[in-house]
Each structure stands twice: as structure tokens, then as C-alpha cells.
């Protein structure tokens, strides 16, 4: 039982995913520091009359953070997500695809082509005539 678990953990895919997650977490901190230290001040500078709260709208008393809608934080979160996902794609996914292609395996490829079942309109494989359900249903006797 433990040998099977050890074999599972030592597979190339599991190790690759684990390394990718560790790198992603470490890079996440770097991107967060970038957005907090560089992007947030730039966004906040676009609307200087909000008592230092940044880009947004004040709903309650002036300077009250609890009633401030912080659009700048939302813009920073979007930038954070785009930078983080682009980096993960270019530093982890593309090299992994290249390595797997050299091994003869296709990962993250295009989905198989499909067509529509003529009876129930569900998606089926391109070489099939009907879906499994429609093919198993017997036609009603007339």
C-alpha cells in the first residue's frame, strides 16, 4: 500500500505540478508586492482628492475607509491577475508543453473536434452518428 503511494508521488506529473505550485506561490508574492508598491500608488495618484484613499467614490463621511468604494484596488487586482497568469503561462505552461512534446505527449492541446447529435442536439465525437443515449433508445413501434 505504501509502495503504491510512493509510486504515485514519484510520478513525473505530480512532481512537475508540485514544483509549479511552489514557483507560482513564490511568484505570487512578487507580483503582489509589485502591485501594492508600484501600481496602487500610480492608480491612487489619478484621483488625489480622496484624502489618500485612492481611486474611488466616498459614500459616507469624508475620509471614512469603511464607506469608500475603492476602484483602484479592483484595478490593481485585475492587473495582478493578468501579470500573474501571463507569467505562469510563459514560465511554466509553455516550457512544460515543449518538454512533453519532446517526449511525444500532447498536453494542453486543442479539444477534439465535435459535431451535434441529429436527434437530441448534444455534442458528440466528430466520427459518431448519434450520441450514446440516442443510439441506445429503440424507436417506437408504429
From TrEMBL:
Q: Name one GO molecular function term.
A: mechanosensitive monoatomic ion channel activity
Q: How does it sit in the membrane?
A: Multi-pass membrane protein
For this record, the Gene Ontology CC terms, alphabetical, are: membrane
Q: List where this protein forms a coiled coil.
A: none
Residues of the signal peptide = none
Question: Mostly located where?
Answer: membrane
Transmembrane portions of the chain: 71-94
What InterPro entries has UniProt attached to this entry?
Answer: MSC/AndL (IPR037673), MscL_channel (IPR036019)
Q: Does the keyword Disulfide bond apply?
A: no
Q: Which UniProt keywords apply?
A: Membrane, Transmembrane, Transmembrane helix
| Highest taxon above the source species | Bacteria
Cell compartment(s), UniProt: Membrane
Phosphoprotein recorded as keyword: no
Matches recorded under PANTHER family: LARGE-CONDUCTANCE MECHANOSENSITIVE CHANNEL (PTHR30266:SF2), MECHANOSENSITIVE CHANNEL MSCL (PTHR30266)
Q: What name has this protein been given in UniProt?
A: Mechanosensitive ion channel protein MscL
Amino acid at each position: 500500500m505504501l509502495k503504491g503511494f510512493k509510486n504515485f508521488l514519484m510520478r513525473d506529473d505530480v512532481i512537475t505540478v508540485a514544483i509549479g505550485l511552489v514557483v507560482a506561490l513564490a511568484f505570487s508574492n512578487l507580483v503582489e508586492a509589485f502591485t501594492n508598491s508600484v501600481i496602487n500608488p500610480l492608480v491612487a495618484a489619478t484621483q488625489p482628492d480622496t484624502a489618500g484613499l485612492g481611486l474611488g467614490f466616498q459614500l459616507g463621511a469624508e475620509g471614512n475607509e469603511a464607506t469608500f468604494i475603492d476602484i483602484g484596488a479592483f484595478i490593481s487586482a485585475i492587473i495582478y491577475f493578468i501579470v500573474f497568469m501571463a507569467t505562469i503561462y510563459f514560465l511554466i505552461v509553455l516550457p512544460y508543453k515543449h518538454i512533453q512534446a519532446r517526449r511525444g505527449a500532447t498536453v494542453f492541446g486543442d479539444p477534439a473536434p465535435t459535431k451535434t447529435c441529429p436527434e437530441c442536439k448534444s455534442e458528440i465525437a466528430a466520427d459518431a452518428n448519434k450520441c450514446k443515449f440516442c443510439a441506445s433508445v429503440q424507436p417506437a413501434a408504429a
